[in-house]
Amino acid sequence: MKLLLCSADADKQWVARLVGKPAHDISICVINEAWVVGNTDIGILIDGLGAIKRDFGGTIHCVNMLAQSLDDVIATINKADVIWCFGGSLGWLKTVFDKTGFSKELPKMLEKKVWVGSSAGSMILGQKISDKCDQGVYLTKDPYSASEWLGILDFAIVAHVHEDYARKDALDAVMRESKTKPFPFYALSDTSAVVVDGNKTYLAGKNAQKIENGKITESI
């Protein structure tokens, strides 16, 4: 698998390195299901789509999982080098993936496609943190929930930990939570990412930590 798991924006150089093509040749398929629920201001989404248009020169497609058949969604994704999943409601994103059958198809797609996630689009692939920890990190509550995320990865991504719109003690909440779970946590700022490139997993960018059993084992 080749994954770029961001808290916010993705660096085009990281994307190009994973794809193995110059940015101007990279085609992208956008998944936007998480943003359409509970977000009335689409300015962040517009900025994100604008950055994709600015940074990448290939075709840009967007799928609508609830309007299209799963076969049509897969056909559209197959035209792209990158599946780019925006953030928003993590619970709703999981609900849509399960309802449409995309959850079962995605692991096979990740054998061939690069995944770029932003916030919920990154967290969905990993392990689920508890609702208590979630509330200890974020100042808003997701109106949707699920008992687990996709679990494709054996670690948890926690986005926005170091940002002003998270709680001041957000990192402490993640540290406490990690003592109760058998998997690592990656606490990200909006200028960092977790990169998965085959059998290698590492932090990139600035201000992020890998946390295991209440201890920081890697930091940038």
List the helices and strands and how they pair.
Layout: E1 2-6, H1 12-19, E2 28-31, H2 43-55, E3 60-63, H3 70-77, E4 82-85, H4 90-100, H5 102-109, E5 114-118, H6 120-123, H7 131-137, E6 156-158, H8 170-178, E7 185-187, E8 192-197, E9 200-205, E10 209-212, E11 215-219
Helix pairs in contact: 7-8
Can you describe what's shown?
It is a single chain. With 220 residues, the chain is an alpha/beta fold. The chain has a single domain, classed as Class I glutamine amidotransferase (GATase) domain (Rossmann fold). The protein is built from eight helices and eleven strands. It has helices at residues 12-19, 43-55, 70-77, 90-100, 102-109, 120-123, 131-137, 170-178, and strands at residues 2-6, 28-31, 60-63, 82-85, 114-118, 156-158, 185-187, 192-197, 200-205, 209-212, 215-219. The strands form two sheets. Strands 3-2-4-5-1-8-9 form a seven-stranded mixed sheet, sandwiched between helices. A four-stranded mixed sheet has the order 6-7-10-11, covered by helices on one side.
